[in-house]
Backbone:
């Protein structure tokens, strides 16, 4: 939490309204019964347990090395671990192997150093914390295809003493390279939209452990990730929109981390893709405890919301606020518990407590936080805090306990335990604090699971495309490589076990939006040559079924002097291979030829083609008739071609008779299947004439393969149509002569990706041009052949 002037606030009456439905796909209703089971306030440390005084280690039995002794990522347990193991966190850290802890045996102090405040200065544990958060998120989100991203930026730093950032003597925050970090789960319906929940992970130099501001906040973020993933597992669902569990850096220096995200990762016209921002900095502390355990002094909780009167997008803010209030009502209906005080157990979390949770529009008089940067671009925000941080901006008085605690050596586990419990030593776990953190995590998670926020969409086996432009998407310099990371894309192979398909079963194809060649791979890089805004599109395709999904993100490029080039080889699909399917999701235009053509050249033909890998291709000429007699294809010419070749129309032996012919161009793609293009021809006299297509280029579309065996057929030799579908279903083949339909063939297809053949008898078909139309799954394709 930073000390800055906040927006004016005013009171908000109790409002009741239905949520604003943003999701376009129906979702199952949120199951409040399951939500009740996720209320788990007691973790490894029980109320009254002695708190440790030195660094904690992950349990030896946990092979992953993660700290989660409760099994449900209790926020209180996590707070202790973070506070004791990573007591200093600022920008500019360059080592990730500092010994855990403060290095001083006194609780709440760092090694003495007269240049700093009384507790000295701890080692910078920024990179150690990031490693820990990344491991925790990867483990928790792995069966949802979740990923972790670090967003690098430069923190300018700040000094409250008036000197340069990092100078000794005060509440300084040193500058340097640092990172925002996010655990990300892509949405099933709307991966392009997102919600964000965050606390900040950096500390001021003046706080050795900062258990309240900020360890509590991101300990709750981890707990929220656990609550939400447990809910999705229990209900067989996943988020409808993308959810980011995203602690910021450089909040204490001036909310620079969230400001960097808002300005460099969100284009101005795209702010609405963020459905809501949820903040915890800090959330619990004194609530729902009694002040120092005094049963006569209850500390109110305040829910801060954006003020529609001053919001840049009030049409979004008003329904968000109304739903937030109704979520609180639901929460207190479902939760009933007691908490210890000096007078013994006292009831809390009952419906009567609803009136003690104040709702405010705006903020506090002396404190603000990262939510302000999202409010500034019209994103609705929710920020819970105990009424302990001095007066509200409207003059409403409040306790000043927060002002004298945060940003000082008092901000420690021991202090907050004493603030929230009857035991004034602060050396035992506080019932009030651990239940307060659970309240914050449960309450905000409940709102984030609503359909208009993150949502709870039933899991399905379809592919979902998602990617992140890195290092940022707004202000990318021309000539510098931008990275596009599709690690968040996924497709389930087994829904029951949430087993994801291997990467090799999926094709990642990139269109950078500037006319440059397509790229392939889970991660692609591209250097733009000119400024402008470019739509980057990822197409994710199942190689076996042909099912696909696309994701598009606009990238804003500014003038730059960079000279970097795209990596060599990313124009080839590294995972292309033939499995047990006909097409194996090979789009020939992607994997072999970039262009291919056959043109008439005098009495002969000109073959032209270009391959992505620059290799030569094979050109073959086949004769399929003699006069009106259709014959088996006979090769009459064969050439190896580099780029282009003109053939004079003379075979090695004999002469070419009039009749039907075709040319086949073949090139080996990057996988095991070749790229084949066929062109129908007719020879009259001593010259060739191009005919309409008799074969469709193989693709990943619903009708992935459609071919006639020849461009002509005769009275005795009929026509065979071959096709492959990416989904089983009913097929209709219609045969037209001119505008008249002369035959209809229906065929059920029980298996996808199996080659199907249909014979078209020449009986009762007159001479002339025929059009053969294949219809399947709402799609159609047409080819042509001549009856001789």
Residues:
């Amino acid at each position: 939490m930073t000390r800055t002037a906040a927006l004016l606030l005013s009171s908000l009456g109790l409002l009741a309204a239905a949520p604003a439905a943003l999701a376009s796909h129906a979702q199952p209703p949120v199951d409040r019964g399951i939500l009740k089971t996720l209320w788990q306030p007691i973790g490894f440390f029980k109320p009254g347990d002695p708190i440790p005084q030195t660094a904690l280690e992950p349990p030896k039995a946990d092979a992953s090395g993660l700290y989660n002794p409760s099994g449900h990522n209790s926020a209180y347990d996590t707070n202790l671990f973070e506070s004791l193991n990573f007591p200093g966190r600022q920008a500019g850290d360059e080592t990730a192997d500092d010994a855990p802890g403060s290095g001083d045996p006194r609780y709440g102090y760092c090694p003495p150093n007269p240049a700093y405040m009384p507790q000295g200065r701890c080692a910078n544990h920024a990179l150690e914390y990031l490693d820990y958060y990344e491991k925790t998120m990867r483990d928790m989100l792995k069966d949802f295809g979740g990923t972790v991203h670090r967003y690098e930026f430069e923190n300018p730093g700040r000094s409250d003493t008036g000197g340069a950032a990092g100078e000794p003597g005060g509440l300084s925050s040193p500058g340097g390279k640092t990172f925002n970090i996010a655990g990300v789960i892509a949405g099933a319906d709307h991966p392009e939209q997102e919600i964000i929940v965050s606390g900040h992970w950096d500390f001021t130099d003046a706080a050795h452990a900062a258990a309240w501001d900020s360890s509590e906040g991101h300990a709750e973020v981890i707990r929220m990730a656990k609550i939400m993933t447990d809910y999705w597992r229990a209900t067989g669902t996943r988020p409808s929109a993308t959810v980011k569990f995203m602690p910021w850096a450089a909040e204490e220096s001036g909310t620079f981390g969230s400001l960097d995200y808002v300005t460099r990762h969100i284009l101005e016209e795209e702010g609405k893709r963020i459905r809501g921002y949820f903040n915890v900095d800090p959330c619990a502390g004194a609530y729902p405890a009694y002040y120092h355990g005094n049963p006569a002094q209850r500390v109110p909780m305040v829910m801060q919301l954006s003020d529609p009167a001053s919001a840049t997008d009030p049409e979004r803010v008003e329904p968000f606020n109304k739903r937030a209030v109704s979520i609180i009502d639901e929460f207190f209906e479902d939760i009933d518990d007691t908490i210890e005080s000096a007078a013994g157990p006292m009831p809390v979390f009952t419906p009567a407590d609803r009136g003690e949770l104040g709702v405010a529009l705006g903020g506090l008089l002396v404190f603000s936080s990262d939510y302000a940067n999202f409010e500034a671009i019209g994103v609705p925000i929710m920020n819970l805090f105990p009424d302990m941080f001095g007066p509200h901006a409207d003059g409403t008085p409040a306790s000043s306990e927060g002002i004298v605690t945060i940003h000082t050596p008092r901000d420690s586990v021991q202090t907050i335990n004493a603030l929230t419990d009857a035991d004034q030593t602060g050396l035992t776990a506080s019932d009030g604090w651990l239940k307060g953190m659970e309240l914050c995590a449960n309450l905000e998670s409940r709102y984030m699971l609503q359909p208009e926020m993150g949502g709870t969409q039933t899991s399905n086996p379809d592919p979902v495309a998602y990617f992140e432009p890195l290092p940022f998407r707004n202000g990318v310099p021309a000539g510098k490589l931008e990275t596009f990371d599709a690690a968040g894309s996924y497709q389930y192979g087994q829904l029951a076990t949430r087993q994801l398909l291997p990467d090799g079963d999926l094709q990642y194809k990139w269109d950078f939006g500037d006319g440059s060649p397509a790229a392939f791979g889970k991660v692609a890089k591209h250097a733009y040559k000119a400024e402008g805004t470019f739509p980057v599109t990822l197409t994710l395709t199942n190689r076996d079924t042909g099912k696909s999904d696309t994701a598009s993100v606009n990238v804003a490029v500014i003038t730059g002097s960079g000279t970097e080039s795209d990596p060599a080889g990313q124009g080839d699909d590294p995972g292309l291979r033939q499995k047990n399917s006909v097409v194996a999701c090979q789009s020939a235009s992607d994997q072999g030829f970039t262009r291919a053509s056959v043109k008439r050249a005098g009495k002969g033909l000109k073959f032209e083609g270009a391959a992505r890998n620059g290799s030569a291709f094979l050109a073959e000429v086949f004769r399929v008739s003699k006069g009106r007699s259709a014959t088996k294809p006979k090769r009459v010419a064969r050439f190896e071609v580099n780029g282009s070749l003109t053939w004079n129309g003379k075979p090695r032996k004999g002469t070419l008779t009039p009749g039907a012919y075709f040319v086949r161009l073949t090139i080996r793609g990057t996988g095991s299947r070749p790229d084949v293009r066929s062109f129908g021809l007719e020879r009259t006299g001593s010259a060739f004439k191009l005919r309409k297509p008799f074969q469709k280029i193989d693709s990943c579309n619903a009708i992935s393969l459609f071919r006639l065996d020849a461009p002509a057929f005769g009275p005795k030799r009929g026509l065979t149509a071959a096709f492959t579908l990416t989904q089983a279903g009913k097929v209709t083949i219609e045969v037209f002569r001119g505008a008249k339909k002369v035959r209809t063939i229906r065929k059920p297809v029980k298996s996808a990706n199996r080659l199907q053949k249909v014979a078209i008898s020449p009986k009762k078909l007159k001479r002339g041009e025929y059009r053969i139309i294949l219809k399947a799954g709402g799609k159609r394709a047409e080819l042509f052949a001549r009856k001789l």
Remarks:
- The chain has a mean pLDDT of 85.
